[in-house]
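Customer ticket, subject: "Can you confirm the structure for CYRIA/CYRIB Rac1 binding domain-containing protein?"

Message body: Hello, I'm evaluating your service for our small team and ran a test protein. I'd like someone to confirm that this is what the system normally returns, since I don't have a reference to compare against.
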Amino acid sequence: MAASPQTWIKCSNFLLWRCFVVIAVSNLRFLSGLLGYFHFSSSFLTNYRLLSNLLPVLFHFLSIFSPTEAETAVWNQVSAVLEEAHGILAELQSYNGAGQEIREAIQNPGDLALQEKAWNAVCPLVAKLKRFYEFSLRLENALRSLLEALTSPPYAPMQHLEREQALAKQFAEILHFTLSFDELKMTNPAIQNDFSYYRRTISRNRLNNQQLEAENEVNNEMANRMSLFYAEATPMLKTLSNATTKFVSENKTLPIEDTTDCLSTMACVCRVMLETPEYRCRFTNTDTMLFCMRVMVGVIILYDHVHPVGAFAKTSKIDMKGCIKVLKEQPSNSVEGLLNALRYTTRHLNDDSTSKQIRALLQ
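Agent reply: Thanks for trying us out. I re-ran your input and got the following:
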């Protein structure tokens, strides 16, 4: 039996990791690129040890891990959510909307048959949109569980990334899903058009003292929450950004650096993997490239929402200029959505502390 594409991808990612380890040990340029991230003035040996600890993070993004006993409870919770994520993306990708039926109904307001046809076309789509919204709430809970596991004392963020490798991979997969979902949503105006028509019809019938059966599934309160969700250009990313900010504000005894260092480390790893030709050329498919880019952009945005001065300040632990440059080196059709996410969903891009060079790069 021929191996499935997923099997080939897993195998190629494993081989890619092995290449990274062998080359990284012998390649000083790779070492210096990562060591620059730490800004340490101590000995090279100390920095080298820290780098050696960072190398396994590469594996988190490109391989499959079995959870340790300590990780199992959180891993099982998040795994159930990630399994559903594949179906959510497939449904969103095939979402065609009821544009034709809605136009015919609007153009012929007195034709009851066309009104009913449009309503019957929209209702199952709204039920699908409700599932997407409810999934965002489960994704938010999964992210919170991962943040708790990857930042809790007594371990430092780097130690967590070493110890909880399966959870680190799940964190990356959540970000990959989030950016994928939002890219699809941004390019599909039918979503908001369908939902707007649904709400207008509900309101019109309510004025006429009529209640449609569909209201039992999506009542007015649910419709209001869904409306706020889909009004966002990047609704899933907004959900995760709010969840991360809330996590930090609710855990006042946890140093904020424990969260931001975890995010900046992941951004650094992705950037170096993408900008170093010796490693980039070993990506066996564009999916791996996209995975790294989406994870990098995702953690940058979360960092920018959580850190007091954000990701674009000179004191940021994220090399924003390098991250943006590596994105702009890719084909525009594959990164425009990611660049837009940095332009429009970050908090500190337009701060006075952001350099003109970085702003120019995102214009």
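A couple of notes from the result: The radius of gyration is 23 Å. The chain has 17 helices and no strands. Feel free to reply with more questions.
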